[in-house]
Each structure stands twice: as structure tokens, then as C-alpha cells.
């Protein structure tokens, strides 16, 4: 005959942890409802339309907006994205420096910076929002890297093809994902400028 009791049963500690998990889930849900209400404000409508093109969820929309709103803060005195022409370090030819875009990427935690010491040089991401950077990485994992979930638009095609090509070339996966995040930030800036300029 089989025993009706398997293991030690449900102890008071297990019940306590279960209650805690349920409380956290309820709190998480109420925060998400409040976030939905805040994002429903008309001043975010154009931003959210652009976010739809990228397939961002409500949480990611909230995280990004907390870092980039208003987009006009990244523009120059003339109310347009700031671009300066400077002499290239290596070529000596005039090159464009997209200052507004760099500030935008930096605030999202997605602006790579070059560190050089003697013969060694490496690209490292420094500054900006760690939370935003992590959220973008998760978005790349779920919406770009998985082919069946990939965005069915120009943005998904551009990011997906670059990701596939770089992985096929056997580049380090972390580097590939980092590049895709940075490119996604550039595309996001471009689309927001189109809508909000």
C-alpha cells in the first residue's frame, strides 16, 4: 500500500514563502496596471507608436521613457539633432559626429567607448542606465535572436540579418548581442526623430 503522505508535507515555512510569492505577484500586477495608466498619457502617444514598431512590451516602454523623455533634450539649440563636422583622427578628412545620437545611446547604456593603452585597445560600454541595457539585452534575446519571434518588419529584418551574419562568422555572441542593442538604439533614435521632429 502506498503512503498518502509524500515527503515531509507542506510545512509552515513553505506556506509562508508561497504567501510571499503571491503577495509579490499581486504587487507586480498593480504596478503594471499603474504603469499602463501613466503610459496612456497623450504626451507619450507618438513615442508608444514608435515603440510598437520594435515590439517593446509595457515594461520596456516604461524603462526607455524614463531615460529618454523628452527626446528634444538630446537636440541642439535649433531643435534638431546635433551633428558636428570634424577632421577625422586617422584619415584627416571631414567626418560627421552625431552628438545627439551619442547622448541618446549613452543614456540608454548602449554607447560603446574606446579605451586605449599602449598597443592595446578595447571597446567597452560605460555609463548610462544598467537597467535599460539589461532590458535591451532581454529584448534582443526574445524578439530578435529567436527567429520564430522575430519582428515582421524592416527593423526586425535589419537587426535579424546582422545578428545571423555575425553569428555565422563565429564572432563572440556577447559582442554580437551588444552590437545589435547599439544598432537598435540608433534605429529607435532615427524613428523617434522622424515622428517627433
List keywords for this structure.
197 residues, mainly alpha, 2 domains, two-stranded antiparallel sheet, 4 strands
Walk me through this protein's architecture.
This protein has 197 residues and is mainly α. It has two domains: 10-39; 42-74 and 106-196, no CATH class. 57% of the residues lie in helices and 11% in strands. The protein contains seven helices and four strands. It has helices at 12-39, 45-54, 58-68, 99-107, 130-145, 154-168, 173-196; strands at 83-87, 94-98, 112-117, 120-125. The strands form two sheets. It has a two-stranded antiparallel sheet with strand order 1-2. Strands 3-4 form a two-stranded antiparallel sheet. A hairpin with a 2-residue loop joins strand 3 (112-117) and strand 4 (120-125). Helix 2 packs antiparallel against helix 7, helix 5 (130-145) packs across helix 7 and helix 6 runs antiparallel to helix 7 (173-196). The longest helix is centred in the first third of the chain and has 28 residues, at 12-39. The model has no long low-confidence stretch (mean pLDDT 84).
Mean pLDDT: 84
Question: How many domain modules?
Answer: 2
Question: How many β strands by DSSP?
Answer: 4
Task: Spell out the helices and strands N to C.
Answer: HHHEEHEEHHH
Mass-distribution shape: globular
Count of individual helical segments: 7
Strand content: 5-15%
List unreliable stretches of 5+ residues.
none
The main sheet comes to: 2 strands, antiparallel
Main sheet strand line-up: 1-2
- Helix percent band: 55-70%
Gyration radius, rounded:
22 Å
Pairing-aware structural class of the strands and helices? mainly alpha
Ends apart, CA distance between termini = 76 Å
Amino acid at each position: 500500500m502506498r503512503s498518502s503522505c509524500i515527503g515531509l508535507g507542506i510545512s509552515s515555512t513553505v506556506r509562508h514563502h508561497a504567501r510571499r510569492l503571491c503577495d509579490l505577484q499581486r504587487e507586480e500586477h498593480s504596478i503594471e496596471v499603474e504603469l499602463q495608466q501613466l503610459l496612456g498619457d497623450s504626451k507619450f502617444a507618438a513615442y508608444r507608436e514608435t515603440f510598437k514598431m520594435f515590439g517593446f512590451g509595457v515594461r520596456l516602454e516604461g524603462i526607455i521613457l524614463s531615460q529618454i523623455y523628452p527626446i528634444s533634450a538630446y537636440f541642439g539649440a535649433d531643435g534638431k539633432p546635433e551633428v558636428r563636422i570634424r577632421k577625422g583622427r586617422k584619415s584627416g578628412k571631414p567626418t560627421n559626429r552625431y552628438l545627439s545620437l551619442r547622448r541618446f545611446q549613452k543614456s540608454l547604456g548602449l554607447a560603446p567607448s574606446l579605451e586605449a593603452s599602449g598597443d592595446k585597445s578595447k571597446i567597452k560600454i560605460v555609463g548610462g542606465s544598467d537597467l535599460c541595457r539589461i532590458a535591451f539585452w532581454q529584448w534582443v534575446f526574445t524578439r530578435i535572436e529567436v527567429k520564430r519571434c522575430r519582428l515582421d518588419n524592416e527593423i526586425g529584418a535589419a537587426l535579424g540579418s546582422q545578428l545571423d551574419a555575425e553569428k555565422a562568422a563565429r564572432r563572440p555572441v556577447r559582442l554580437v548581442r551588444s552590437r545589435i542593442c547599439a544598432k537598435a538604439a540608433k534605429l529607435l533614435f532615427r524613428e523617434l526623430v522622424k515622428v517627433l521632429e
